[in-house]
Amino acid sequence: MGVLETEDPRGGETMSVPARSEAVPGVLEGVRAVLLDMDGTLVDSDSAVERSWRTWAVRYGLPEEEVVAGVHGYPAPTSIRRLAPWLSEEEVADAAQVLLDLECTDLDGVVAAQGAGELLAVLAERAIPWAVVTGSGAGLAKARLAAAGVTAPFVVSLDDVAVGKPDPQGYLMAAAELGVDPAACLAVEDSAPGIAAGRAAGMPVAALRGLSGELSITHLGELAAHLRRIG
């Protein structure tokens, strides 16, 4: 706890008083592991994601604005089924591969999200285990994390689960891999399907982008500051 200098109202003299500590959000008190979404959370890839989807939309004759407005947070095949319900499952798979090829070759501007370095440093200092849980496939996750300069202990990708977000399977798999009870894992997300997945796994959620979670943050540096204050 710091010290503040203030004037004594009785005599005009300066005196020292303990500074008031900012409270740690109660939801963090029992956290033993942190599980981070990738796109838009740990990695700032918004521009690259949008470019790829726009190019894909043009190829499939779909309105670009409608496409980019509704895909964030969902696995690509899920979005493609919704956007083009006339496609067969084989065609959905082909369309998803077209998108994947676009995404893997467009990494321009992909960087670590604001506060990511600070958060990962705090997790290392506190020996708090962490992992990435993403709706992207393993190849794309590897490419974007590398472009952002982030080395994750391990990644649960869309390739590792039978069903993607908002299903909780990915988060439950990550918790099991870390050997931590899901209730003691903090999921960090920036989309409605991701938040739903974390909650369905029984985890408290730190939400970005103004979304509602057990904890709301504007960037990862805020979460780092909260964790640093835990005694």
Automatic annotation (TrEMBL):
Example of a GO MF term: sugar-phosphatase activity
Keyword check for Endoplasmic reticulum: no
One family name in Pfam for this protein: Hydrolase
UniProt keywords, alphabetically: Hydrolase
InterPro entries noted in UniProt: HAD-like_sf, HAD-like_SPP, HAD-SF_hydro_IA, HAD_sf, PGP-like_dom2
Keyword Hydrolase attached: yes
Region (Disordered): 1-20
Name recorded for this polypeptide: Hydrolase
